[in-house]
Design goal:
- This protein is mainly α and 436 residues long.
- It has 19 helices and no strands.
- Helix 1 packs parallel to helix 7, helix 1 crosses helix 9 and helix 15 crosses helix 17.
């Protein structure tokens, strides 16, 4: 059993501390920009949902149009004059492809600024990329070998996620499930050490923040049964969502036309936000409403359609950002709407709307981001909900994952191991067959 060398432990501690510091800096930067952009000021602790609801519809439109100018102009310049961006997945799969540190830092900060200005994409990619860029530089300084560099990069990415959401366990699983795709002793130890260090540092600076401090909601057998029934519909929704985003951006980011496209796209997002302000930002505002069952199905349907359209528009504009919280919001709204309709049709066997919204958010996230195990743990850590919620979560995941894989791969025969790498779930299954 291969264990961690003392030098690797030292590297992981440094990377974890750096990721935590990056998380603190980016969180403060984002909140500062949000308050100034939407005009709420610094009068006590308020959520972003309250900030955007407080701002006038016209102000939202102006801020989002300005965000479009920044999105189009800044990323056009980056793609035109800077070294090509290298994604975390690319550098983990091939550690010889190093991330350009300066370009990556600017690229990450731009993501945070645009999300703070209302871009409907997530904020989690920025700290992950900056942490990975730091790991790249550290690997160069200490001349680490290729296999260790891959481990450090994957753990750095997970630590960035841990830092921004205060989720050490989910972030460690994320590194293992989506990047390293292995669960040996060395990898597990490294992932937990790095993510744990990052969260420890963040809690020293920002405190032990709970992203969704929600009340525990009781649920019965009917809710668990409905969670199983709704799984296939969530799977179909995820497939449609993926197909709707696939064509974008249709204009190259180094083409000047992308600037005009970005301004128009974000202007349209601003128009949508005049009626549905909760679509702005990564999606946390909408999750707060669905997880507490505070909106009608009509408003939920409006948020679902406008958030979906806003994500398409932002992607078409060439904006960068994560998909974690936007995916959660879409899944949560699907869960909320379906549960409300179920209760209207079958009042005798009603289900908990809040629980189904929570389950829908987790399963949509798990399928859309190809991280089903991470998503289940992630939602529980974000909310500090009881492990009792694992029952409906796992039941829904079982039915949705089966339908998702069946629809995705029914007409895609895997002819070789190399081809299977394009399909993470199929590759995971084949790896165990081969080991046998």
């Amino acid at each position: 059993m291969k264990s961690l060398h003392i030098k690797v432990i030292f590297y992981l501690l440094i990377i974890g501390a750096a990721a935590g510091s990056i998380g603190i800096i980016l969180t403060i930067l984002m909140h500062t920009i949000q308050h100034y952009a939407f005009g709420y000021g610094f009068h006590g602790e308020v959520s972003f949902r309250e900030v955007v609801e407080y701002a006038s519809p016209l102000r939202r439109l102006i801020v989002l149009t300005g965000c479009g100018v920044l999105v189009g102009g800044a990323w056009f310049v980056i793609h035109r004059i800077c070294p090509p961006l290298v994604s975390i997945k690319q550098t983990v799969d091939d550690p010889t492809r190093e991330m350009p540190v300066k370009t990556t830092v600017v690229h990450a900060v731009l993501q945070i600024i645009t999300v703070a200005l209302g871009s409907p994409l997530g904020r989690e990619v920025a700290p992950r990329e900056m942490s990975a860029a730091f790991a790249t530089k550290l690997s160069q300084v200490f001349h680490v070998d290729t296999e260790t560099r891959k481990l450090l990069l994957a753990c750095a990415s997970g630590a960035g996620l841990a830092a921004v959401y205060n989720v050490p366990l989910a972030a460690a699983i994320f590194s293992l499930e989506t990047l390293l795709m292995r669960w040996d002793y060395r990898s597990v130890s490294a992932a937990f050490l790095c993510s744990g260090t990052a969260v420890y540092v963040v809690r020293q600076g920002l405190g032990d923040l709970v992203q969704y401090p929600l009340p525990q909601v009781a649920f019965g057998e009917s809710t668990v049964l409905f969670a199983a029934l709704i799984g296939p519909f969530i799977a179909i929704a995820v497939i449609i969502f993926e197909k709707s985003l696939k064509p974008f951006p249709c204009i190259s980011r180094n083409n000047p036309k992308i600037i005009v496209a970005a301004i128009i796209s974000f202007f349209l997002i601003g128009v949508l936000s005049m009626y549905y302000p909760e679509i702005l930002g990564n999606g946390k505002a909408g999750n707060q409403l669905s997880f507490t069952d505070r909106i009608s199905w009509q408003y939920g349907l409006g948020l679902l359609s406008t958030k979906w359209l806003a994500v398409i528009l932002a992607t078409a504009a060439g904006a960068y950002g994560g998909r974690i919280t936007p995916s959660m919001m879409l899944g949560g709204m699907i869960g909320l709407i379906s549960a409300i309709f179920w209760n209207m049709l079958f009042p005798g066997i009603s289900v908990s709307v809040a629980v189904i919204a929570f389950v829908g958010a987790a399963i949509f996230l798990g399928l859309a981001q190809k991280m089903p195990v991470t998503a289940v743990v992630f939602l529980l850590e974000l909310s500090r909900f009881s492990p009792a919620y694992l029952f409906p979560l796992c039941v829904c995941l079982a039915t949705s994952l089966w339908v998702y894989n069946t629809l995705q791969f029914a007409n895609l025969p895997v002819k070789s191991w190399e081809e299977s790498q394009r399909h993470p779930y199929m590759a995971y299954i084949l790896s165990h067959i081969i080991k046998q």
